[in-house]
């Protein structure tokens, strides 16, 4: 039976060679970058293409992007907040639901799918999302591209987090840093190419190199334990121990004994889920507060007398947030934070502060908001990378792979809940 080899935080899973350790760290860094990079770039391109379609049919649609461009303004809007006609919370909800759905269902069945097949599914779906958005002739095609990208991102996250349990724990630092860098690098590269004169369609087709890079990172860069196969299912002890125990009992145990053992065999899975709650709740709260700020309040934090326009202020908010996430997700090698509830509390205080700032407009300048947004990104990135580090450290060997994939639902659930709450808040303030 395959087992996690992650019992010691910084011992190599298959070799003491330092170069092997660096290859695995870099491999997970690129996997994290590719898993989120394509999603960011595709969403940016989808916004441009949707806007082009809107100009052709005069129909207002929600832009499928987290970095919303406010160039299309509602000139008739008399609100003091200079609101965008469609809340970015509605966009966020459409973006996160496919990822949330796969994270909720997949951990209980995904162990039957070999990691090599999972990677190929992610690659195919990411490439499909690029092609759908690039060649879309209708809004529904672009939205379908968003769905494919969201599904691929969710499947990739839970799969690569589970895969990390077969390597030394320091690869989580590479994964976290890569996912943090994807937001900054993806948005900057897309903006640079389009600014250089390439059309969104050509730029998007150029980005097909991203899924190819994921294949190289997984199959060529990582140094796998010899007993882990690309094309055979990994044996998730937490899920398969029950069936094996039943098989042994059928051979020689009586009915009463089978019933007692059958009941006992549910315990590993139940106890696993219960032990994860202390990690998933704080992570979910952090991301709820974080995306309530990003998608419900950030576009309302507008300073009309500032030297930056509303669109430029919002873009800098998003950029500083992504920079904060990148820094904190890359900090695992330097500092580890076990008090996850403290991070959740601080992020909630951030959300409350900015909610009152939107309502009463007492903040003097956008400079102060820049600092708060950067701090928000630092908290969010720290919560993410430390959550999975301590799950990997504290989970039992039999449960570690399942725990890593299951816990990834915490942030997605928090984001989805934030979108539901942020939407009416946005509408309320814009009606003032």
Automatic annotation (TrEMBL):
The chain crosses the membrane at residues 26-46, 130-151, 171-190, 202-224, 340-360, 366-391, 412-429. InterPro entries: Battenin_disease_Cln3, Battenin_disease_Cln3_subgr, MFS_trans_sf. It holds the Pfam family CLN3. It comes from the Eukaryota. GO terms for cellular component: endomembrane system; lysosomal membrane. Its main location: membrane. The keyword Transmembrane applies. It is found in: Endomembrane system; Lysosome membrane. GO terms for biological process: lysosome organization; regulation of intracellular pH. Keywords: Lysosome, Membrane, Transmembrane, Transmembrane helix, Transport. Belongs to the battenin family. PANTHER family: BATTENIN (PTHR10981). This is Battenin. It comes from Takifugu bimaculatus.
